[in-house]
Amino acid sequence: MRWWYSSILFRIGKGRAKCCLKIIHYSMISILVLFAKLFYFLSSCLYLVEAAEKDIVFLLDGSNSTRNVFPAMRDFVEKVVEKLNVGENKDRVSVVQYSEDAEAHFYLKTYITRKDIVDSIRGLRHRGGSPLNTGSALQYVRDNVFTNSSGSRHRQGVPQILILLKGGRSFDNVDTPAFALKQQGIFVIGIGTNSSDSGELQTISYEPNCTLLVSEFTNLQSVQDQLSSLMSTALVRATPMTPTVTESSSWIIQVNLKKPLVTKPKGRDVVFLLDGSNGTRTGFPAMQDFVQRVVERLSVDDNKDRVSVVQYSRDPAVQFYLNTYATKVEILDIVRGLRHKGGRPLNTGAALQYLRDNVFTASAGSRRLEGVPQVLILLSGGRSSDSVDESAAALKQLGVLTFAIGTRSSDSRELQKISHNGDSALSVSDFTDLQQGCGDIVFLLDGSDSTRNGFPAMRDFVENVVEKLNVGESKDRVSVVQYSRDSEVNFYLNTYTTKEDIVDSVKGLRHKGGRPLNTGAALQYVRDNVFTNPAGSRHLQGVPQILILLNGGRSFDNVDTPASVLKQQGIIVIGIGTRSSDSGELRKITQDPNYTLSVSEFTDLPSVQEQLSSLMSTALVRMLCSCWMDLMVLEWDSQLCKTLSKE
C-alpha cells in the first residue's frame, strides 16, 4: 500500500508539541493516527530529556522575624538563579515577598535575561510586617503569578515550580490553598528553619520529601544541592497528557500535548540474576537472604511489583518468571527453598542475553511496553568467561536498569560495564557481607547529671555493641558523642580504624555532667559536625548512616526540626530510653516507632542488645534497598524516553 505526503511539520516550542501531517493521498486514516501517536512518543521524550523550560516562583517570608536573615535568603535565590537557563523560551523567574499580605517584586514575564533578574534580586528590600499569612500568600501566587497574564506557561505544559522560604508558623490556614496548588500541577518545594512548623511545611510541599530544613536561613547553602535535585525531579515527573487527535477537511492531523501531570511508575519488574557457579557455593545462603530482604521491601501483593529469579553458571536456569507468582509469601517461600545450581565456567554475557530474550518479555510477565520500570539486580562472584559487552549494551538499549553486586573475586570494570552507570555497581569482600553490610555508626550518649549512676552501664553497652561490629576503614566506622547542655565529641568516625582502639577509648570514657539536657541541639550538632566528610562520614559514597541515642530524660529544648533534618539527610536514628525519658519525644526522634527501645534503667541495657543488633541489620539493608528503589524511580523516566525514541 503506497501513500505520499507533501509535508511534515513537527515543531516543539513553549512546552507544546504540535504535529501537522498534510496529506495529498492517503490509504487509511488509522495510518495517520499511528503517526500522530509516534510523534507523541517522540515529543514526550524530547520534553522530558531536554526539559529546557520551567516557570519558577520564589515565595519569600518577609515578616518581621526574618529581618536579620533576609540577606541570606536573597543570596540563596541569586545562587539558584545563576544556575538556571534563563530566557523567554527557557526558564522564567518570579519573586514574591509576603507577611500579612503578598507583593510581587517581578512576574514571570517581567525579565527575560539572567542579568536583569539577578540585578533585581540584589535590590530586594525586606518587606516586614506581621502576622505571617502563608495560606493567603499561596492563594495569591496561584491567582496572580501562575497565570497566563503574568507569564506562566502552564497551559503549554511547562513545569510550574514554587520554592517557598518560610521562617515561622502561619497565622492562617494553609490546607486549602496548598491543595489548590497541587491540583493545578504546581510542584511546591518548602524550605524552613527551626522556627518553622515542619508538619505545616510538609502539608504545603508537593510531597513530604520535598521539604528541606535548615537550622537558620544563614545555612541555606547546605541544601543547595538537594534543591537542585528536587527541581530535576519536578521536571522528570512533569509528563504530558494523552494527545488529542483531530481531523480537519484539509486532512491535517494535529496533536496537542496539554499541561503536564505529575505521574509515578505503576510499579517495577525486578529480576534477580544469581551467580550459581561452583565459586559461590558457600556464599549462596547469603545471596538468598539478600534477595529475601529486597523482596520484603517490594509491593508485590497489590500487583505493583513483580519478581523473577534466575540462576546461572555455564548456562542460565529460570527459577520463576515475572508472572509466575502474584504474592510476596509465594515468592519468599520459593527463594528460601532455592538450591545452589553449581557448574562452570561462569558465562555472565550469555546469561544477560538470555534475560533480554526470555525474561524481559511480555510472555514472561514483563510490563516494559506499559511503561513499568525494568530492573535487574545481578549478584556475581567472579569474572565472566565470555564477553559481556554486547549483551550489557542490549539490556541498556532495552531500557533495563541494571544494578550489579560483586565480590573481591569479581572484575570491577566488568561490573561497571554491566551496570546502568558507575554508581550502580557495588563491591563487597564476599557475599556474607550482604548480611552485615557496613555503616557509619554514631553513639550519642546522655551525659547529663541525671545519668551519672547509669553511665558505667551505658559505657559497657556501647563496648558490647562495638565488639560485634566489623570495624575497619572500609568496613564499620564508629564515633561517640556525649551531651548535656552542649555536645562534646569523644572521637570521630575517622579517629580509629581498629576495634581494639575504639574499645579502649570507650572504656576510658568519663561522664560529662551538666544540665539542662538539650537533645535538640545535640541532634543538630551531630548532623553538622559528625555526619560530615571531614569527620569521616561516607554518606556521599552511599554508606548507611546510623545514630544510636541513649537518652535518660526529657529534652529541655525542641527536638522536632533537628530530628526532621536528620531524617531528611537519610540518617537512621535508633532511640533507647528509660522510664525517665519522654517516649513520645523518642518516637519523634527515631526513624519510625519500631526504632524506639525502652528499658527501666540503663543497667537493663543488655536486655535490648539483640533487638538493637536486629534493628541495625534491618536498617543497613533497608538503606541499601531504599537507595536503589529511589534511584530506579528517578532514573526510569529519562531511560524510558531514550528507549522509546529508538523504537
TrEMBL record:
Residues 55-227, 269-445, 440-612 form the VWFA domain. It is found in: Secreted, Extracellular space, Extracellular matrix. Keywords: Cell adhesion, Collagen, Extracellular matrix, Membrane, Repeat, Secreted, Signal, Transmembrane, Transmembrane helix. The keyword Repeat applies. PROSITE patterns: VWFA (PS50234). The keyword Secreted applies. It comes from the Eukaryota. InterPro entries: ECM_Assembly_Org (IPR050525), VWF_A (IPR002035), vWFA_dom_sf (IPR036465). Pfam families: VWA. Gene3D superfamilies: von Willebrand factor, type A domain. The chain crosses the membrane at residues 21-42. GO terms for biological process: cell adhesion. This is Collagen, type VI, alpha 3. It comes from Cyclopterus lumpus (Lumpsucker). The lineage of its organism: Eukaryota, Metazoa, Chordata, Craniata, Vertebrata.
